[in-house]
Amino acid sequence: MALSWKARRRWALFALVVALPLYIVVTVNVIDLFDRPPFLLELAIYIALGIVWALPLKRIFKGVGQADPDTPKD
């Protein structure tokens, strides 16, 4: 089922305002449970997790910044 432009926009806003900060807190807490890894390994983990969160949401973010394609043209 395809989401409308308005629904994608709402879900993208929810993902950026609510889900992303929650993901950051959970990620930092999970990394904190382990002994501090070497700096480069820790950096690589944060970079990988910073990319991984966006992959499932790619379809939601696609085209959200453009004008609504469903509006009638004048």
UniProtKB/TrEMBL annotation:
Segments passing through the bilayer: 12-31, 37-55
Record InterPro entries: DUF2842
Keywords associated with the record: Membrane, Transmembrane, Transmembrane helix
A Pfam family recorded for this sequence: DUF2842
Protein name: DUF2842 domain-containing protein
Native source organism of the sequence: Roseinatronobacter alkalisoli
Species lineage: Bacteria, Pseudomonadati, Pseudomonadota, Alphaproteobacteria, Rhodobacterales
